[in-house]
Amino acid sequence: MKFGAEFRRFSLDRQKPGKFEDFYKLVVHTHHISNTEVTIGYADVHGDLLPINNDDNFCKAVSSANPLLRVFIQKREEAERCSFGVGSLSRRRRPLALREDGPRRRTHLHIGLPHDFRPVSSIIDVDILPETHRRVRLYRHGCQKPLGFYIRDGTSVRVAPQGLEKVPGIFISRMVPGGLAESTGLLAVDDEVLEVNGIEVAGKTLDQVTDMMIANSHNLIVTVKPANQRNNVVRGSRALGSSGRSSDSTASRHSLPTAHVLQNLPPDEMESDEEADVVLEGVLEPRLVPRPPPGSLARVNGAGLAPGLHSPGREGSVQRLLSSLRSDPRHSLALPPGGVEEHGPAVTL
Amino acid sequence: MRRFLRPGHDPARERLKRDLFQFNKTVEHGFPHQPSALGYSPSLRILAIGTRSGAIKLYGAPGVEFMGLHRENNAVVQIHFLPGQCQLVTLLDDNSLHLWSLKVKSGVSELQEDESFTLRGPPGAAPSATQITVVLPHSSCQLLYLGTESGSVFMVQLPAFRALEDQTISSDAVLQRLPEEVRHRRAFEMVEALQEHPRDPNQILIGYSRGLVVIWDLQGSCVLCHFLSSQQLENVCWQRDGHLIVSCHSDGSYCQWPVSSDTLQLEPLRSCVPYGPFPCKAITKIFWLTTKQGLPFTIFQGGMPRASYGDRHCISVIHNGQQTAFDFTSRVIDFTVLIEANPEAALDDPYALVVLAEEELVVIDLQTAGWPPVQPPYLASLHCSAITCSHHVSNIPLKLWERIIAAGSRQNTHFSTMVGLAPAPAPPQPRARLAHELLRHLLQEWPIDGGTSLAPAPPQRDLLLTGHEDGTVRFWDASGVCLRLLYKLSTVRVFLTDTDPSESLSAQGEDEWPPLRKVGSFDPYSDDPRLGIQKIFLCRYSGYLAVAGTAGQVLVLELNDEAAEHAVEQVEADLLQDQEGYRWKGHERLCARPGPVHFEPGFQPFVLVQCQPPAVVTSLALHSEWRLVAFGTSHGFGLFDHQQRRQVFVKCTLHPNDQLALEGPLSRVKSLKKSLRQSFRRIRRSRVSSRKRRPAGPPGEVQEGSSRAERTGLQNMELAPVQRKIEARSAEDSFTGFVRTLYFADTYLRDSSRHCPSLWAGTNGGTVYAFALRVPPAERRMDEPVRAEQAKEIQLMHRAPVVGILVLDGHSVPLPEPLEVAHDLSKSPDMQGSHQLLVVSEEQFKVFTLPKVSARLKLKLTALEGSRVRRVSAARFGSCRAEDYGEHHLAVLTNLGDIQVVSLPLLKPQVRYSCIRREDVSGIASCVFTKYGQGFYLISPSEFERFSLSTKWLVEPRCLVDSAETKNYSRLHDRSGPEKASGRARNSGSQSDGEGVLKEIQSTLEGDRGSCGDWRSPRVAVGYSLSNGGGCS
């Protein structure tokens, strides 16, 4: 059984929770999984997934229940892949958290592979950026939500050889409630925008940065220096990098040409995420612009190949076609690659 | 994307780029914005104009131009040439003096500032003590006399500006040397006039504002004589022989005083109030000039009856019983009269009146009866009516050129030809004679003709067409340094307007007093804003012209050498078609004049298409071979067959949600608010533009220099934070249906075996429509209808406005213009290889294959730089090394004011230069590119800056001014005609037919004192091949 999940509800004495070992036995017994090794975790008040593996944290978990305690049970080998930690539930929006809602209590959840889900946003390039910075990718395509944020001019303090220096900077000024940017939780008001899709914004005007962001809105990657520096990812290897370090120097050290900056992405991912232009032959047949033959000098204009989507048949305007494409947010991801007639006059659908 | 960030340094390519591209701002055409001072050197025959932003511009013979800019950016108040020298002194409104000189460097004169100086008084003196009111350069060129507000006259030694403090003529010193009865009558107050005795350099005249005039002996430091008038003194003129002084006064009177050394003159010889007896305004400047005939010329500014004509800007000329008050449409800044330059000559013999008004330069011929105006070869008032659009056509065929000149010459009959050209011996070729005749009208003898232009004759004939708010289109010769008006087309005649334009001129009565006469062409008031011209398209081979305007009117015109009277066919194009329930709240469409209309020779309209709703026409294309015209508005686009006078189709591009486009930009409620806002904006713009002329930084450095402005901008931001919404564009945005570009192409639209005519349209919402056209063959052209069928519709997913569409042939060369191949001026396009479609949006450049429309290449400009494409045009860049090597590329102007060259067909950025300030929105919006890598943009409402991206095509002034040479320069009309003519005949006779004519026309148009100088023929005519203007690929 691939999706083996059970939900059980039982009570514990809040004052005397007892020992962890008893609890473990109770759990495996209740679920009739005595023969499998499991790890037990719980969701704390902040939405973080924390482990229960000794008396102390078991005690802590029970005392923090308010009034229910959500306990997660996973096979040990599966659980290994999903690490506990701060931000693991709410901030990362792991599938676990997304699926875990309503009255379900205990879960034995198969964690789906990323491609089963529609990505909304991600933090990327954690390994090459200074800890004070965060590079956020917003996946707008197929999403009905507006990007939903505003930027403004401001001043930022940098450490220069001559001492502290005020320089102009671009900041997030407002989040649209319910917008994509807000819903990711990765961007916040007063975060300083350092780069847009790998291009530094230093020296650019507000209008230029606005135009850059809108031009990249199908696949927007924003590097920010968060106003709140307490939620930064801390890496052991870079523990020396304190958040008090000059953002100027770090920015210059780490702002690399796009090719480097986006190294964590598969080479054609940038392109494939871009939506393709739509060409209507005559006034009837819609098709997406096909990919040119591989190895040619030409570059792919957009590789979101979507054969067999629609056959409007009637005189559908491009707008209608597009809005229908949008309304199925997953179409372009769910489609198997290939199957496109490369050299035909048009992809007839 | 990666490719563009790592350009990959190919040294050979870098070298080639240096041979192809180079950025220069070469010359400013038009009339200086906000002029503030006028100067003239009779010996150099050069005119100088200073502006409120601190620029000085020098003009001599056509093509002789210099420009200088004071670092202080303060208004230039006075300009004085040092007598007989290539030097001039300027006074700025910060009371600083600047010495400029024309220095010869490697054979070419350059204007440069040598020294600057601020007069300082003794410690503790009031600032007015040294506030300069009058400047007098002494004829020795060693001294400068400075009259001040305190009444003192300071002396400064040139060229170092060394103040000679011990020689100051203070008002006290003058007072002590005056008789008792004068001394106690009044204080002197400021110095209003300073003049040197015309014959005796030891005497100067000092006029004080309270009415006292003294003649001061410089050596003896004594008053030779004095005159006392009862009125405030405005100015003084000293007659050439020194025996008579004419003073003008604040009550509108002038007085004549005879100069005799001993006697005290208490009463003037004659006193007169020319426009009395009612109170008059001051006469601010006066000239009293002697002539051969004995009767003097009296020329003065102002003096009009205060109550009824006090608001007029007038200069009156009185001579031999004739009196005319020239009435200018804008304020008179200053004027001068051109007289005999030789100081030894006995008579003044004035021959021209030069008036600098706020908005134009007017020159009046004083030797021809009736004192007609002379058409200046430069300093054209581009903004006679505000410029609304411009269109450039390179390489005009001679035939069309001649016909336009002929049409224009008939319009210019009211202009003086000064002294008519001496009849030239018949040129050997008949066509040359024709050209010569035509030019007689155009080429007047221009009285300001100092210096010699060394610039090579322009390699080709270029036209710049400007559309104006009043419904006119002006045709400018943009081939050379002088932008000269060739012909003016008015579309007003086609429509019924409130006022009949022909009546206003004849309304002036003959016997009225004062004898006012309107002069000048500046008339910023438009009867009806709907007449404004928005798009122009001229076919240089067929002479067909399409013009489209603010109220959705599209006119197709044909060049006719004869006057004609005919009805204009009217057609309505309903662009909304089936869209129901919408109401246009903007302006109404223009009402066409019914019945036959008389048209003068020139471009005569024969078809009027009126778009419904009558929104402004936003794009226009004309295909003269297929006889089709395409037009687009914010609602859709249409195709019209002007041969059969039939509409082929219309297509509505409107998105159903787009309410704004439907109501129209000029909805009635908004219009007042909007016009108010615009007028404020205009005021602000004029203020901004006074600061605009910063010296251009080194080209290529884009981001430098702006940091300070940014920092100050930042401080302002902190007070009121501006924020911008980040949101992807959607199909529902406003004005997505706005048609931005239309393009005709003969290409492979449907399949790769057959090419056919096609029409392409791009919208604001990133949609490209392609229509396949079937145009009947020529023999059945009138019998079968033109058919159109939509073949493709491309929606760019980034949805940015489409600003350019271009089809490249099998060799990746842009398709030639219609009829270009037929006229053997271009190679036939390559129809073997596959064609490619280039779509330029504001954000990206994209190349698609044809006929499949699959994307091949792209360059994302906005995503990388944050800049957006404002203008794009394909241009051919010639190499400065190899004569016939050239490449086709895209010239691009962005919203940041940068100019870039993007290669074809690989879309690689080649070079980038900062050109226009990013805040200068009107400058960016006005930019036009030529087909050979040059361009124009407005730096003020009245001036075009010309720039060049090409190493090969460069039109810039190169001229020489030599003071020694001009010493015994006699006046123009004293030179013998036959000599001129022989020079010209030699010039044209030595060449073969067509080329000779061309060169002759060009050399004469280029001007340079006609063709009188012998220096001209060997240097210029040799070695200039016209074939390089051929536009072949």
Radius of gyration from the alpha-carbon trace of chain B, in angstroms: 31 Å
Poorly predicted sequence stretches spanning 5 or more consecutive residues of chain A: 86-105, 237-273, 284-349
Radius of gyration of chain A: 25 Å
Strand content of chain B: 35-45%
Order of helices and strands of chain A: HEEHEHHEEEEHEEHEHHHEEHH
The percent of residues in helical segments of chain A reads 10-25%
Q: How many strands of chain A? A: 12
Task: Say what oligomer this is.
Answer: heterodimer
What structural category characterises the helix and strand content of chain B?
Answer: mainly beta
> How many alpha or pi helices of chain B?
16
Brief rundown of the structure:
Chain A has 349 residues and is an alpha+beta fold.
Secondary structure layout:
The complex is a heterodimer of chains A (349) and B (1033).
Chain A (H helix, E strand, L loop, with lengths): L19 H11 L7 E6 L5 E4 L2 H10 L6 E5 H6 L13 H5 L21 E4 L9 E6 L9 E12 L2 E13 L4 H5 L7 E5 L2 E2 L5 H10 L3 E7 L21 H8 L3 H4 L7 H4 L5 E4 L3 E4 L29 H10 L3 H4 L15
Antiparallel strand pairs in A: 1-2, 1-3, 4-5, 5-10, 6-7, 7-8, 8-9, 8-10, 11-12
Chain B lengths: L1 H4 L5 H10 E10 L4 E7 L4 E6 L3 E5 L5 E5 L6 E6 L5 E6 L3 E10 L2 E11 L13 E6 L5 E6 L4 E5 L4 E2 L7 H6 L3 H4 L7 E6 L6 E6 L3 E6 L4 E7 L4 E6 L5 E6 L4 E5 L11 E3 L10 E7 L7 E6 L3 H4 L3 E7 L2 E7 L3 E7 L13 E6 L3 E5 L7 E2 L12 E7 L4 H14 L18 H13 L9 E2 L9 E6 L3 E6 L6 E7 L10 H6 L9 E4 L13 E6 L5 E6 L3 E8 L3 E3 L2 E6 L22 E3 L2 E11 L6 E5 L4 E5 L3 E6 L4 E7 L6 H5 L4 H23 L15 H14 L3 E4 L12 E9 L8 E8 L3 E8 L12 E9 L6 E7 L27 E6 L2 E6 L5 E6 H5 L3 E10 L7 E9 L3 E6 L5 E6 L6 H5 L2 E2 L4 E7 L2 E8 L8 E2 L16 H13 L3 H14 L9 H6 L12
Parallel strand pairs in B: 25-35, 40-42
Antiparallel strand pairs in B: 1-62, 2-3, 3-4, 4-5, 6-7, 7-8, 8-9, 10-11, 11-12, 12-13, 14-15, 15-16, 16-17, 18-19, 19-20, 20-21, 22-23, 23-24, 24-25, 26-27, 27-28, 28-29, 30-32, 31-63, 32-33, 33-34, 36-37, 37-38, 38-42, 39-41, 43-44, 44-45, 45-46, 48-49, 49-50, 50-51, 52-53, 53-54, 54-55, 56-57, ...
GO biological process, one term (chain A): centrosome cycle
Main location (chain A): other
Subcellular location (chain A): Cell junction, Tight junction; Cell membrane; Cytoplasm
